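Incident log, support desk, overnight shift.

02:14 A customer reports that sequence design results differ from what the structure should imply. Their input is reproduced verbatim below. On-call engineer (initials T.W.) acknowledged and began investigating.
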């Protein structure tokens, strides 16, 4: 694999209080795509799709998804792993950012800020974020 990663910030896990999520706290997943069309997905270990490339109209450039959008979207599990998978088949570069917005309205905390680049259409890459709910 010849993927080049530029990592500015990479937190592997975060502990979130359910009370914060139920009162307006959330994660914001953002993916910027350079190329014809990005091919990506963010899915948990139970195959629940958070977002995928086909959710966004062409041309894709800035794709984002708030989680949870509603408290009912919070799963029953207390330990969730979301995995971003990207393909370089039609896009040569991605920028991935995940921010945590607290319910109290304070400034967001950047959990991930990573750029991925490859000119090899056969390349792919992934990144995980573990969420522990307390």
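02:41 Re-run completed on a clean worker. Output:
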């Amino acid at each position: 694999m010849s993927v080049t990663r530029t990592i500015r910030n990479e937190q592997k896990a975060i502990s979130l209080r359910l009370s914060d999520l139920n009162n307006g706290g959330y994660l914001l997943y953002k993916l910027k795509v350079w190329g014809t069309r990005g091919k990506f997905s963010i899915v948990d270990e139970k195959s629940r799709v958070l977002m995928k490339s086909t959710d966004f109209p062409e041309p894709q450039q800035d794709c984002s998804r708030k989680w949870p959008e509603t408290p009912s979207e919070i799963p029953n599990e207390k330990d969730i792993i979301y995995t971003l998978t990207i393909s370089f088949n039609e896009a040569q570069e991605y920028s991935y950012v995940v921010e945590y917005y607290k319910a109290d309205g304070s400034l967001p905390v950047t959990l991930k800020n990573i750029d991925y680049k490859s000119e090899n259409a056969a390349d792919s890459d992934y990144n995980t974020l573990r969420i522990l709910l307390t």
